[in-house]
Amino acid sequence: MTPKIRIHLADDHQVLIDGLSNLLQTVSNFEVAGTSLDGTTVYDDVVKDLADVLILDISMPKKDGIETLKEFKEKQLPCKVIILSSYDDLKIIKEVMKLGAKGYLTKNCAGENIIEAVEAVYQGQEYFSDAVREKIFNSFMDSPKLNHNVIIENPILSPREIEIIILIALEYSGKEISEKLFISSHTVETHRKNIMKKLNIKSTIGLVKYALKNNLINP
């Protein structure tokens, strides 16, 4: 039998917790292992519940989501964290991703994306709602070489991989890409290797050619 994904919900609104809990438990391999209404208890609750995935609100009473993430990072808790917030401010997104959050959803789209987000981060991927992804993408839209009409869709590549191809083609270094997308340099390198394998491309020059051929950037 496939083990269930154990999920912990942390938000100071019981109504939201109840709604998400009911939705998540419609998935057969999901289990809502516990909940927290107070930021000061989240770490201990997650450890006690042996949670695989934490869905965490930024604005928690007494101890906010940022401080909770810092504690998770300091104590190296392996639980994957999805931020659920009313805010889509780029500065906040950048901070939580640097602290190790693997996903970011705005509350107005949580019902549509939460199941997909849990499955993605549990498998080691990242997940952003469309509004958050647009914020991130727009943060590097000022390059004159970028094709502003590009549609980020591809049957082989994920939206994240296309973003990385664009940045490589725009001559961003691995460190600069990690800072732009709020991910580690190691994650950037892993994505780069996966992209090259998927596209059967052997070099960075090949990635640049792919970006030009597919109109991801302007010559």
TrEMBL record:
Domain called HTH luxR-type: residue spans: 150-215
One Gene Ontology biological process: regulation of DNA-templated transcription
Domain of life of the source: Bacteria
Domain spans labelled Response regulatory: 6-122
A Pfam entry, by short name: GerE
Molecular function per GO: DNA binding
Phosphoprotein is among the record's keywords: yes
PANTHER family hit by this protein: NITRATE_NITRITE RESPONSE REGULATOR PROTEIN NARP, TWO-COMPONENT RESPONSE REGULATOR
Annotated protein name in UniProt: Oxygen regulatory protein NreC
Species, as recorded: Flavobacterium anhuiense
